[in-house]
Design a protein that fits this description.
2 domains; alpha/beta; Quinone Oxidoreductase, Chain A, domain 1; 10 helices
Length: about 350
């Protein structure tokens, strides 16, 4: 294969507030000889699609600051959940032409495992599913779907059998919509309350079966929950004031699943004032990170069995906000913090990634 143009998105500065394209990252291009680039026993992957996720903001920090997600390194390309196609291999596990889901760099061509050794690094072969684009393995069948499934499978599956009401915040995002459709399939008797931040997103929530959908920017969350609760299970993607409102409207022995804290990712709005409700109402709180721990691996093995057929049957629908080309990756990263995206934000790096 002749030399190709290899685009790269490089991390160049730590943000203190919102991430800004061109300020904290930079798109560059280089010429790459795919026949001679050193693999050191690994594989060369042609990247087809990359996920853009809110948690990436946690990675944009000085490496001396300890957090659950590994820090990005100044001067190095970003990496995240992706799907690609093997073009060269020095690893007997993979052959050219294999489709792979993994944690690859923001490049047109990514060497795996390369120089990165953090705990999120992974790679596995995936099938070409009829009727679905490969981008599904960077989005719906990757971080958001697996996050929703793992949290529900490990913590809420049994509780749901004796519950009446579920509340989901930041519900129009990829995790929230997956969870709504999955719960509607396996626990159809649960009343679902869900909140989002735009009229269009409220319309989406209603269209997928939410019983009570409201705009948290225009409506008092605590009043809605008081009217339609009490809440037996709260799936928390927000923290901050939303978590406070939920705490004050939980049922006794209620369950809170802490999945995200988007209110504190860019601004300091994550403080909780009513934590005393935890002991007053004998609440259980479970926090988790997708893929971490033996229980997570057990849950994700079940995901691979249960979820792809539900997606193919359209019980759980693929909703993507596509950003075309690697040059658009910075815009995609920004979008998940400003609410610009509608559906799972994915970067279609190569046209094969978006073709069903």
């Amino acid at each position: 294969m002749p030399k190709v143009t290899n685009g790269r998105v490089i991390y160049v500065a730590h943000p203190t507030g919102y991430y800004e394209p061109g300020v904290h990252t930079k798109y560059v291009e280089e010429q790459l000889d795919t026949d001679t680039v050193p693999l050191n026993g690994g594989i060369l992957v042609k990247v087809l699609a990359i996920s853009s996720d809110p948690y990436m903001r946690h990675r944009m920090r000085d490496e001396s600051i300890p957090l659950f997600a590994p820090p990005l390194k100044i001067g190095e390309p970003l990496d995240n959940f992706s799907v690609g196609k093997v073009v060269r291999s020095e690893d007997p596990t993979y052959t050219p032409g294999d489709y792979v889901q993994g944690y690859f760099t923001f490049e047109n061509y990514s060497v795996y495992p390369g120089s990165t050794t953090h705990a999120f690094k992974h790679c596995k072969k995936v099938p070409k599913l009829p009727g679905l684009p490969m981008s599904a393995f960077a989005g719906l069948l990757a971080l958001p779907g697996k996050t929703a499934y793992q949290g529900w499978y490990l913590f809420a599956k049994e509780k749901a059998k004796t519950s009446k009401t579920l509340y989901i915040s930041v519900a129009a995002g990829a995790v929230g919509t997956f969870l709504i459709e999955y719960v509607k399939t396996v626990h159809p008797y649960l009343k679902i309350i869900a909140s989002a931040g735009t009229p269009a997103k409220i319309d989406l929530l209603k269209s997928i079966g939410v019983d009570v959908a409201f705009n948290y920017k225009e409506t008092d969350t605590a009043k809605v929950l008081a009217e339609h609760g009490p809440i037996d299970i709260y799936w928390d993607n927000a923290s901050g004031p939303t978590l406070d409102a939920a705490l004050c409207n939980m049922s006794t022995f209620g369950l809170i699943i802490a999945c995200g804290a988007i209110s504190s990712y860019n601004e300091d709005q994550g403080a909780v004032k009513h934590f005393e409700k935890v002991f007053e109402r004998s609440l259980s709180i479970h926090g988790f990170v997708m893929g971490i721990g033996d229980d997570a691996r057990r849950a994700l093995a079940e995901f691979d069995k249960e979820i792809p057929p539900l997606v193919q049957a359209r019980n759980i629908k693929l909703r993507e906000h596509r950003f075309q080309g690697l040059k658009s990756a910075e815009q995609a990263l920004r979008s998940v913090h400003t609410g610009e995206n509608f559906g799972k934000a994915v970067v279609i790096v190569d046209e094969e990634g978006g073709a069903a």
